Structures are given as structure tokens and as C-alpha cells.
């Protein structure tokens, strides 16, 4: 044995070298085992995900059972001369069907440019749009998705009732099935049939469904008469029928309208001259003016009520409909009813019955009735709803020294009532209440009615 200093050091190096080699070998072995496990887990994961996707697709609705045609149409009652007397509208039925040939190119191009610029190229799903939406999800850490084609939006509306799933898992399942059905749908229908169905189905705010009703609602004209400027107002509404309504939120609509026109110019749907002319048009003033001038149609006349009841009865006794089916047909069936009422004669009667001067003075037999509700939306689009009772509660301590509101006899004149004698004060109270509930730039939707009572009318049958 060599116990010299040199021999001892050599022995130590030999021991360390053996130990190091052993440790290295163990590490390499562990690394290889780990790598094999990761690969196996990856394979299992891919198989599991593939199986899950396959199961989701197999549980999707049968494409042969999917109906893309719009459902629910307004019915109309006409005077004896053929002019419109009254529209009958059920839930989501304020719609008038138009063919794709009746819809002007500027409106079709506006929707395509804004909602799905590769609509005429893809087979139902837009791969580029999916990747873009994926990056957006990673960036925002949310599941807003986006990237839906017009075909997907149609499937979402007709098959999945516009989505709004309660959790992320259900939303992912719906999205996978939606993409699958969109591809299948394009095997059955042409692009023009899909676009026609989409433009007749879509919710365009202000109670309007489909482009024909939207055109009448905002501009008072047939859809075929829309200009580029007007088309670029309607197309943006599809993204958010509440928040992009050009009557209530013209600034928000104008921002997306700018994007619509930019895209149309980029895609060469319009020229620079067309673009400049559209932007120069004061379209929102026209919308406001038309909305202000529109006659409200909240109540049906006594004649309309009688026509409605007679047709309801005839549908049951002469056509064999049940009460529910007859009611649905009247309000959602898009039927036309031609009555015996003379428009000219009835117009003369209405002129005098609408004149407040022909009735007792306010407070001496006449009064105003107030109806009110308010919805306020936060940054995440969650709504808080307020109703007339909330308004009355807010002013429960108001000292009504001027007798502006009705109070029960022999009770203190404190608080306000839905019945009162000053339309101006009702308007002021509504404004004060709204300002107390709407903070900063919060979005809100308000419905108010102040109506002279008692309501009276005369109908010439």
C-alpha cells in the first residue's frame, strides 16, 4: 500500500471519479425515464383530448335537423285602402323577411367586411381568425373567444340560442360543436343562402330583427334604399344590439362604423370617394330626427283589439287552430289582415281625440300616469335593474307642497306617485333618479312613459 501523500491523493481521486460516474449514470437514467414518462403522458393526453373532442362532436345536434330559416314575423292590419294601420309583434318577431336579391350590396359588404372578411373563401371556420382569437384568449386570460364566422354566428343563434353558457367548460363544448356544424352547414347551403339567413335572423337592436326591420326602425325606409353611410351604421349593431344601438349610443356605434368603412375600403368594396362621402354624412342627426318624429305605437286602438279578437276566433272555429296556435299565428306568423276601417274618417276623429285641449284640465279630471324602468350595466356587462317602485322609494321623503302628485285623501303630501299633475316634474324626478344610479360612463337602457289619463278614443267601424 502506498501511504505517501501522493498515493493518498490518487486514491481519493479514484474514489471521487467512481462516485461521480455513478451519480452521472443515475441522473442520465432518471432523465431517460422522465422523458419516457413525459412522452407517454403526452400520448395519453393527445388520445384523451382526441377522444373528448370526438365525443363532443358525436353529441352535436344532427345537421339535418338544423333549420336556419328565420322564425317569427310581424303581422299587419291594413285600412280599407290598403295602407298600414297596425303592426302585431310577438317576442323576437319584429321581423320582415327579404331575399338576398332585395338586400343592397353595400349592406352585404358592410356585414362581411366587419364580421367575416374571408366569408367567401373559408369552409365555415376561419383558421386565421381562430389563431387570432387564441392569442387574444392567452393575452386577456378570458374566454371571450371571437373569431366566429358568419356561418358560426348563424349556428350559434339557431342551434345554441345565442350561447351565454354558465361556465367555461360548457362554452368550450359549444364552440367545438359550433365549428363542426358550421363546416357541415356549408356542405348543404350556398354562401348566399347562409348570408340571407344571417341577415334575416340577426338582432339589430331597438326591437328589430333582420335588416328590413332595422332599416325601417332607424331610417324609415326599405332595406333596398339604404346608402353606404346608413349600411355602415346598421352592420356594427350585430356585435352588441344594446350597446351599439345608434339611437342610444351614437358615439359607440360611430367608432365601430369607422372600422366597418376602413375594412370596406381595404377590401376594395368601396372607393376612397365613397369612403369620404360616407364619413361626411351627418347620419346620426337623421337617425335622431326620425326617432323623435316617429309616432309611438304602445297601445292598440279599440278597433285593432276587436279585429284581433275576431281573427283569433276565426282561426279557431274556421281553421281548427288551438288558442295558443292561433295567438302565435297572429303575433308571430307574418299574416296580413285587411280591415273595413276607413283611414280618412278615422284620422279626423283621432285628430280631435288626441288634442288635450278638448278634455278636462290637468287636475280637474285629467292627470298623467308614469311608467318607468332602468337597467345599468357595469364594465363586465352585468346589469342592475330598477323599476317604478325603486323610483318612488327614492323620493319617499319628497315634500309635495305644491300638490304635484296624487295622494290619498286625508294623508300627508309626502313622496311621489305614479299618478300626477306635472309632466315636467315627472321628467325632472326621472332624470335625478337616473343620475343617482348611473356612474360616470356606465351604459344604461331606460324606458319611460308619461301618458295623459284617462285614455279615451272613438272608433268608426
Automatic annotation (TrEMBL):
SUPFAM superfamilies the record matches: Lysozyme-like
Listed transmembrane segments: 30-53
A molecular function (GO) term: peptidoglycan glycosyltransferase activity
Record bears the keyword Transferase: yes
GO CC annotation terms, alphabetical: plasma membrane
InterPro entries, per database record: Glyco_trans_51, Glycosyltr_51/Transpeptidase, Lysozyme-like_dom_sf, PBP_transglycosylase
Keywords from the named record: Antibiotic resistance, Membrane, Signal-anchor, Transferase, Transmembrane, Transmembrane helix
Lipid bilayer topology: Single-pass type II membrane protein
Compartments it resides in: Cell membrane
Pfam families (UniProt xref): Transgly
Domain Glycosyl transferase family: 84-264
Biological process according to GO: peptidoglycan biosynthetic process; response to antibiotic
Source domain of life: Bacteria
PANTHER family: BINDING PROTEIN TRANSPEPTIDASE, PUTATIVE-RELATED, PEPTIDOGLYCAN GLYCOSYLTRANSFERASE
Protein name according to UniProt: Penicillin-binding protein 1A
Organism per entry: Lachnoclostridium phytofermentans
Native organism taxonomy: Bacteria, Bacillati, Bacillota, Clostridia, Lachnospirales
Amino acid at each position: 500500500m502506498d501511504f505517501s501523500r501522493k498515493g493518498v491523493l490518487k486514491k481519493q481521486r479514484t474514489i471521487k471519479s467512481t462516485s461521480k460516474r455513478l451519480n452521472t449514470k443515475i441522473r442520465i437514467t432518471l432523465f431517460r425515464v422522465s422523458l419516457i414518462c413525459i412522452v407517454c403522458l403526452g400520448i395519453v393526453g393527445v388520445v384523451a383530448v382526441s377522444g373528448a373532442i370526438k365525443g363532443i362532436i358525436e353529441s352535436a345536434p344532427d345537421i339535418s335537423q338544423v333549420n336556419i330559416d328565420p322564425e317569427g314575423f310581424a303581422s299587419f292590419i291594413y285600412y280599407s285602402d290598403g295602407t298600414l294601420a297596425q303592426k302585431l309583434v310577438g317576442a323576437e318577431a319584429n321581423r320582415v323577411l327579404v331575399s338576398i336579391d332585395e338586400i343592397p350590396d353595400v349592406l352585404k359588404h358592410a356585414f362581411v367586411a366587419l364580421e367575416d372578411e374571408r366569408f367567401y373563401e373559408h369552409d365555415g371556420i376561419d383558421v386565421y381568425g381562430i389563431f387570432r382569437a387564441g392569442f387574444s384568449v392567452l393575452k386577456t386570460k378570458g374566454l371571450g373567444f371571437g373569431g366566429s364566422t358568419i356561418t358560426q354566428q348563424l349556428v350559434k343563434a339557431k342551434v345554441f340560442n345565442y350561447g351565454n353558457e354558465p361556465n367555461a367548460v360548457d362554452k368550450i363544448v359549444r364552440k367545438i360543436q359550433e365549428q363542426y356544424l358550421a363546416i357541415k352547414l356549408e356542405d348543404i347551403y350556398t354562401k348566399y343562402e347562409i348570408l340571407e339567413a344571417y341577415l334575416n335572423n340577426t338582432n339589430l337592436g331597438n326591437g328589430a330583427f333582420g335588416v328590413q326591420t332595422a332599416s325601417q326602425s332607424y331610417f324609415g325606409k326599405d332595406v333596398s334604399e339604404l346608402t353606404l353611410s346608413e349600411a355602415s351604421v346598421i352592420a356594427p349593431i350585430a356585435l352588441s344590439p344594446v350597446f351599439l344601438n345608434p339611437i342610444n349610443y351614437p358615439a359607440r356605434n360611430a367608432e365601430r362604423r369607422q372600422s366597418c368603412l376602413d375594412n370596406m375600403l381595404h377590401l376594395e368594396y368601396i372607393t376612397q370617394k365613397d369612403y369620404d362621402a360616407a364619413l361626411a354624412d351627418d347620419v346620426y342627426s337623421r337617425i335622431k330626427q326620425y326617432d323623435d318624429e316617429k309616432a309611438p305605437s304602445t297601445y292598440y286602438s279599440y278597433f285593432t283589439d276587436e279585429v284581433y279578437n275576431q281573427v283569433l276566433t276565426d282561426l279557431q272555429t274556421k281553421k281548427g287552430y288551438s288558442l295558443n296556435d292561433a295567438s302565435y299565428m297572429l303575433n308571430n306568423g307574418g299574416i296580413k289582415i285587411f280591415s273595413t276601417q276607413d283611414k280618412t274618417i278615422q284620422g279626423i276623429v283621432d285628430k280631435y281625440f288626441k288634442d288635450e285641449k278638448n278634455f278636462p284640465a290637468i287636475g280637474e279630471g285629467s292627470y298623467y300616469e308614469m311608467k318607468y324602468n332602468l337597467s345599468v350595466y357595469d364594465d363586465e356587462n352585468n346589469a342592475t335593474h330598477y323599476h317604478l317602485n325603486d323610483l318612488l322609494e327614492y323620493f319617499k321623503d319628497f315634500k309635495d307642497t305644491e300638490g304635484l302628485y296624487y295622494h290619498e285623501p286625508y294623508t300627508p303630501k309626502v313622496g311621489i306617485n305614479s299618478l300626477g299633475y306635472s309632466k315636467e316634474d315627472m321628467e325632472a324626478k326621472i332624470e335625478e333618479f337616473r343620475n343617482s344610479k348611473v356612474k360616470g360612463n356606465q351604459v344604461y337602457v331606460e324606458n319611460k312613459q308619461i301618458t295623459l289619463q284617462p285614455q279615451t278614443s272613438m272608433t268608426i267601424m
